[in-house]
Amino acid sequence: MKKLLFLPLLVMVAMLASCSSDDDNNMPEIDSRIFTGKLLLNGSPVADGTRCELNVIDESASITLYGVRFAPTMPAMDITMPMLACRKSGDGYVINGKNVLPLVGGEPMDEFLISAVEASLVGDNFVVSAVTPMGTIGFSNALVTPVKPVGDARSFKGELLVGDFAKEVTIDVKKNVSGTLDIVINDAKFAANMPLTLDITLKDIPFEGDGDVTFAAENVAPYLNTETDPAPAYTFATVEGNVSGDKLSLNARMSEELAPYIAGKEFVFVGVETIE
Fold this sequence. Notes:
Helix content is 9%, strand content 58%. It is mainly beta.
């Protein structure tokens, strides 16, 4: 009889435990972190010691850059990018948004509408890229020295054509022990009115040949300036070319899925080796 009386109590305890477990599983993920690193403008560092805050609630995130200024006379601003899509990735997050209305000092700023935001947290490394009317604002706490040509490396000087815009640049081509190439486009610009230049590094490009080589790759996310993480917002759909004698030919086309101002842009370069 005692066993019969005790059975309903066990059932009730099991039901309560089950409900408690379901409630825990349904709780939204909440995360808040503050990072200190470099403030970037068009991929180039413009300030050290910048604080950047990430707040995550389930599948939504906000990013705040504190004390932002791009010139000594510019007043410092706290810029918040709210209501960004957030997806869990390993122990970090992948974050993005389009047509984001930022908050400056808590007030919406229509004139600073951000057309695209891309951010990622991998381990303790947090990288942000936001396309604004004044250029691409970025943040990174994971910057290292950019790739430089060493060892089995060659440099080529020539004209880089991006659409209708042409600029003389130097491209470094370095062979890796892994049997791939690193290609560095130094001081690149996409247009005449682009305020700063970028060093664009295309890493681990497969190639064939020894002295004269041909190379080709698809969906290559470049490394910009000194950043240690690739920039998916500038992905090249195709990269191909060859080194023949003392000449380098390169053709690289950006993905059609990028922001409108760079989607499908084609980089065409022909240059001659420089001897130092």
